[in-house]
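User: Okay, second chain of the day. Same drill as before: sequence in, C-alpha cells out.
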Amino acid sequence: MNKQVPLLFLNVIIIATCGLIYELLAATVSSYVLGDSVTQFSLVIGIYLSAMGVGSWLSGYLDKDLAKRFVEIELAVAVIGGFSAPLLFLTFASLSYFNLILYGTVFVIGALVGLEIPLLMRILKDELDFKKLVARVLALDYAGALVASLLFPIFLVPKLGLIRTSLLFGLLNAGVGIWGTWLLENLIKKRELTILRIKGFIVVILLLVALIKADSLTTLAEDALFADNIIYAKSSSYQRIVVTKGKTGYSLFLNGNLQFNSFDEYRYHEALVHPAFAAHDGQPKRILVLGGGDGLAVREILKYPSIESVTLVDLDPLMTQISKSVPALGELNKNSLNDARVSVVNNDAFVWLDANNAEPFDIAIIDFPDPNNFALGKLYTTRFYNLLKKKLKPDSAIVIQTTSPLFARKSFWCIMKTLEASGFHVKPFNTTVPSFGIWGYALAKLEPFEAPQKPSENIELKFLNENSFASMFEFSADTNLPKDEEIEINRLDNQALVRYYESEWRRFE
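Assistant: Same drill. C-alpha cells below.
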C-alpha cells in the first residue's frame, strides 16, 4: 500500500476541509434563521468539537474491517453533511423543535468526522512509524481547516450560496469514499467492495440531482422563511440580501432580518435624518452617511438645498447597487445614489474612519444594522465614536439608529452611555415604526445643546410635524433609563452591547 499512502494523506486534508465547512454552514444557517449569531456560532462550534471527541473515543470500539468502516463513514458524512443546509432551512419553518435538529445534525457530523481520522491513522500505522504518522496527520488536518476557513467566506458563500456549498462538499465526501474503495481495495473483501461502490454512486447521484435543483431548494427554503413573494435574493461576501413584495409593499431583509418595508420606511428615515438638520445651527453642506446602502437616508438628505456633497460608506457593493437590480427600490429612494453630489465608498466604516483624512463633515447619519454580532458591535464602541469625532466640526450634529428602547432597553441605553463616554452630548429620542414597533435613535453633538422642537422649514415631510417632532424626545416609563441597574459602556474589549442585545431579543424568538 506504500504507493497509496500520499493519496490517503490527501484524504486527511479533504476530510478536515469538509468537516469544517459543514460546521461553518450550520453556524451560518442558524445565525441566519435565528439571528442570535454569537451564541449560535459558539454553541455550534462547541458541540461540533465535543462530538469529534466522542467520535474519536468511539473509534476505539471498531476492531475489524477498518477500511470498510472508513468508506461507510465517509459516505454517511456525504449524505448528512451534504444535505445539512437544505435540511436546516426547510425544518426551521415547519418544525417547532428546530434547535434539536440543528444541534443533532452538528453532533452527528462531528462524531462521524471524529471517527474518520483515527480510523485512517490505524489503517496507515503499518506504513509509517508512529511519530511521523501523528505529525503528518495532524499537520494535514489543520491545513484542511485553514483551506475551509479561507474558502468559506471568500468564495463559497458569495459565489455558490449555502445550499450549493453544502451539496458540493457532500459530493466531495462521496468522491473520497468511492476513491477509498480503490485505494484500500486490498483491505476490503471483493463482495463488500462492490456493495460500497454501488452505495457510493447512489449517494453521488442523489447529491448531483439536488445540486442541479439547488435553485429550487433555495427558493423552497426561503419561501418558507418569508411570508411574501421573493423577487430578489442574492448572497454577497458579507450577507444574504432578500427583497420581497407583498400587500404592504416591498421589504428588504439582510440575513433574514427586516431592514425596512416600503409601506412605513419614511417614518424611520425621516426620524433618522431630520433631527440632525434641525439641531445644526448653520447651512450644512458636507454630509457623511455610514451604512444606509439602500439610499433611503440619502433621499431625505438631498431634500436640503444647501447640500454640496454626501459621502456614503457601506461595506457591501451589492447593497449599494440594489436599486439597479430592483428598480422599485430605485423609485423608492428616488435614485438618490445616482445624484452627482453623492459619492459611494464600499469599505468597512471602522477602517474608513481610521484611515481617511477627509475634510470634516457638518452632519453624520449612522444607519448600521443592529449589533447582533461582534463585527457590528464594534461600530457602536467608544473606539468607533472617537474615530468619528475626528471627522466632525465642533458644531456638527449626528444621528445614530440605536435599536428599540422597548424591546432592547439596556441595549438602547448602553449606546447612549457609550456616546457620552466618548465625549458627546446626547439627546435620545424614539418614534413608532409599525414594521418595527417603538424604535430608538441618538442625536448627539460635541457641544452642549437643547433638543430641537421642530423640523427645518420648507422641507417636504410625510410624517414629522411640530407635534410629532417634539414628542419624539419624550420617553415612557417602560422605555426610559432603568434606575436600578448599572449599564456598561460598550468597548472593543468587552462588547457589552452585543451581550445585552442577544439576551434581550432572545426573549422574542
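The longest helix spans residues 130-183.

User: Thanks, on to the next one.
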